[in-house]
Amino acid sequence: MNMDQNGQGMLWGSCPVRVAHEPIPGLRYVPQFLSEEESAELLQFLEGLEEHDWQRIRLRGMVAKRTMLCFGWNYVTTSKSLTPAAEMPTILLALRNRCATAAAVVPEALKQVIVSRYSEGAGIGAHIDAPVFGEPVVGVSLLGPASMKFEREGSEPVTIVLEPRSLYVMTGEARWKWKHSIPPVKSLRYAITFRTLRVACPQFMYQPL
After folding, report:
1. Mean pLDDT over each residue of the chain, to the nearest integer
2. Is residue 66 a contact partner of residue 57, using CB atoms and an 8 Å limit?
3. φ and ψ at 185, to 5 degrees?
4. How far apart, in whole angstroms, are the C-alpha atoms of residue 114 and residue 133?
5. Selection from 135, 164, 150, 146 nearest residue 42 by Cα
6. Where do the DSSP E strands lie in the chain?
7. Chain segment 131-156, per-residue pLDDT in tens
């Protein structure tokens, strides 16, 4: 990968201004957040990862079609705790800088990144991200498109299409009040999600109250 003196790809020097949409309060969607060249660089990195690096996800004793990688911190669902993960690679740090600018936070606030690989037919059920994580939650979509459904008791469901190279930012009501889900996708898709922590973590483990 072509690197500049700061160790970031030459493609990542600016953040183009795009029209943002807000389908529900606190949800901002930005199409074409990445250029085609930036998307290709990220995909080259992701597709170059070893198969054994991807974590299999088990749900109710079944192996899900979705696999994932965590950098910065791992969230252990069973114990509701955080444990240290590998440091973010340079290319994800560069993407973090861009996402932080779009979300109006300092890059260092985005302490965890989850890279999810959705094989054909993979999805994720309705949920609200664990309360140990704060806001914003920032997601970037690559390769195949996906629908993202938002649900809240007493409100009509809202669905947006996450196009390749798009970005979404969840804060406020969208982050804390609305459940979101991804129905089974029709083709391979990658999602890169950055999250903040609500409290500072010690060096080895944080166990939330």
Report:
1. 84
2. yes
3. -85, 160
4. 12
5. 164
6. 27-30, 55-59, 62-71, 73-76, 81-84, 112-118, 124-127, 133-143, 146-151, 158-162, 167-170, 179-182, 189-197
7. 999 999 999 999 999 999 999 999 99
List, in order, residues 6 or more apart from 45 with CB less than 8 Å away. Answer: 1, 89, 91
Residue 58 is predicted with a pLDDT of 67
How is residue 159 written in tokens? 């669905």
Region of poorest pLDDT, from 25-29, 75-79, 119-123, 177-181: 75-79
Torsion angles phi and psi, residue 89, rounded to 5? -65, 160
Provide the b/e sequence for 184-196 (b: ≥16 CB within 10 Å): ebeeebbbbbbbb
- Measure the CA–CA gap between 32 and 106, rounded to whole angstroms: 22
Largest CA distance in the chain: 53
- Tokens found for residue 53: 């690096």
One CATH from 2.60.120.590, 3.10.310.10, 1.10.530.10, 3.20.20.60 for 22-197? 2.60.120.590
Q: Give which of 32, 96, 122, 85 is closest to 204, Cα–Cα.
A: 85
Tokens of 110: 């985005």
Q: How confident is the model at residue 3 (pLDDT cuts 50, 70, 90)?
A: very low
* Residue among 41, 17, 26 nearest 138 (CA): 26
Q: Is the pLDDT of residue 203 over 90?
A: no
The tokens describing 64, both together, are 């899900």
